[in-house]
Automatic annotation (TrEMBL):
Protein name (database record): DnaJ homologue subfamily C member 28 conserved domain-containing protein
Residue span(s) of domain DnaJ homologue subfamily C member 28 conserved: 10-72
Organism of provenance: Azotobacter vinelandii (strain DJ / ATCC BAA-1303)
Pfam families tied to this protein: DJC28_CD (PF09350)
InterPro entries: DnaJ_homolog_subfam-C_membr-28
Amino acid sequence: MKALDDEIGRQLARAIAAGQLRAGAGKPLEIDEAWLQTPPGLRMAFQVLKSAGIPPAEVELFQQRASLQASLAAADDEPGRLRLRRQLADLEQDIAFRLEALRKLGQG
């Protein structure tokens, strides 16, 4: 069994040297709070996105929400505030629908 382990180690080292693998790839997944809060059916897909440096589309929606909230807090005219409140309500509804769809999809 040791000979097999040694051969696997050599092949991995060659693949890393050739640029076919990233050093550190294949390490066990980090089980953190985000992992536990992600529906089981979506965990691996989200982990692949995270490893590739690609955030889920919902992250952009959360950033838009934060921007709208900041704009609303800074708005000084009532028509502008009303417009921003409507945009924020629409966006929050979109976020809620997406999160519910993800939850259902993740439950399989």
